[in-house]
Design goal:
Blueprint lengths: L3 E5 L1 E4 L4 E7 L6 E6 L6 E6 L5 E3 L7 E6 L4 E6 L8 E7 L14 E2 L3 E6 L1
Parallel strand pairs: 2-11
Antiparallel strand pairs: 1-3, 3-8, 4-5, 4-9, 5-6, 7-8, 9-10, 9-11
Length: about 120
């Protein structure tokens, strides 16, 4: 069983930057960030394999960067040029498989989520 604990997040003005991180209790395969706004479905923000192959959701391309430190079992998400529509709970997800994983239903482990709020 892998435990995931997110940190970071908070309140930022539109155009600002924010970072969130996720500490895993053990070795994982592919990891990802998802977000869910009120009344909306959970959507993929970005996914990254152990070998650092990445995939981004269309709405965050060019603004968000996913990375990981395998020696620390930690996942990161750097967010710039934030928009009010980026407001959501951001969830860290992990699986033991090694290929890119894009669907939320395919991830085995989830963090508790951290709130990101972008004010206009």
């Amino acid at each position: 069983q892998v435990q995931l604990v997110e940190s970071g997040g908070g309140l930022v003005q539109a155009g600002g930057s924010l970072s969130v991180s996720c500490a895993a209790s053990g070795r994982t395969g592919t990891m990802g960030w998802f977000r869910q706004a009120p009344g909306k479905q959970r959507e993929l923000v970005a996914s990254i394999t152990r070998g650092a192959t990445t995939h981004y959701g269309e709405s965050v391309k060019g603004r968000f960067t996913i990375s990981r430190d395998n020696t620390k079992n930690t996942l990161y998400l750097q967010m710039i040029s934030l928009k009010p529509e980026d407001t959501a709970i951001y969830y860290c997800a992990a699986d033991l498989r090694l290929g890119l994983i894009l669907g939320p239903e395919e991830y085995r482990y989830w963090g508790q989520g951290t709130q990101v709020t972008v004010s206009s």
